[in-house]
Structures are given as structure tokens and as C-alpha cells.
Amino acid sequence: MRAALQEIFVTELGLKAEDFADELTYNSIPEWDSASHMAIILAIEEKFGLSLESDDIVAMTSVRKILNLLEAKGIAVG
To answer: Which residue in 3, 30, 40, 53 has a CA-CA distance of 20 to 30 Å to 10?
Structure first.
């Protein structure tokens, strides 16, 4: 699952794979703005078959928090 999330970030933000890290946070880089945040959310919903609530979306402010949320929804972080 972590590799799938990394792929989403690489695709949606144009990041290099080595720049993907748990410490990466919303608005910490110019590429992760409000528009790309929604693209990330949509890609996560599609990839993992989820329908995220607005509270979940607002809380997804870092890679670590996204991983924690996915794990809480029963998706293996691995």
C-alpha cells in the first residue's frame, strides 16, 4: 500500500520517488497545494475503493497522517 501511495504522490505532484517521505506535509512544497491535495484525495479514493468523509480529507495533512488514516480504515500500510 505504501508503494501505491508513493505512486499517487509521484503522479499527482510530479515528485521524484526519493522525495516521498512520511514527513512530507501539505503546503510544505509548492506542488502540494489545495488543487493537488484534492487530486491526491481522488486518486486515493479510486485506488483503495474508499469514499472519504470531509473530516478525513481535512485531517490528511501529511503522508504519515494519510498512512495512519488508511490503516485505520483497514488498509495494510506495509
So the answer is: 53
pLDDT digits (tens, 9 = 90+) for 24-74: 999 999 999 999 999 999 999 999 999 999 999 999 999 999 999 999 999
For residue 27, which amino acid is it? N
Alpha carbon distance 65, 56 (integer Å) = 10
Euclidean distance between CA atoms 61 and 31, whole angstroms: 14
| Average pLDDT of the segment spanning 18-24 | 96
Distance (Å) of CA 17 to CA 46, 50, 59:
21, 24, 23
At 68, list the grid cell.
495512519
Please report, as a single letter, which amino acid is at residue 60: M
Residue ranges of domains in the chain, CATH in brackets: 2-72 (1.10.1200.10)
**Predicted confidence (pLDDT) at residue 78 exceeds the cutoff of 70:** no
